[in-house]
Amino acid sequence: MKIKYIATIAAASIVTLGLVTSCGGTATNTTPGESTTEQGNPCAGKKNPCASKKNPCAGKSNPCASKKNPCAGK
User: Fold this and answer.
1) Using one digit for the tens of pLDDT, what is the confidence trace for 50-60?
2) Nearest to 8 by CA among 16, 18, 23
3) pTM of the predicted protein model
4) How crowded is residue 16: how many other Cβ atoms within 10 Å of its Cβ?
5) Residue 22 and residue 16 in contact, taking contact as beta carbons nearer than 8 Å
6) What percent of the chain has pLDDT over 70?
7) Residues 36, 28: contact at Cβ < 8 Å?
């Protein structure tokens, strides 16, 4: 009886592993008919609109630099 039980468990395991590996395949995140090629950067080659503008914070002092740190010494 013990051999029959072990043989049944072994057969079930082999069948289960066979189904898992044969039906697994490669997983993709695409729907049928969807292209899998990578798209290029749509902004490549376009001019940066902020490149020619002046930095509004340049030359200004840090307003928090002279204040005492409230967390210091705790």
Assistant:
1) 788 888 778 88
2) 16
3) 0.31
4) 10
5) no
6) 74
7) yes
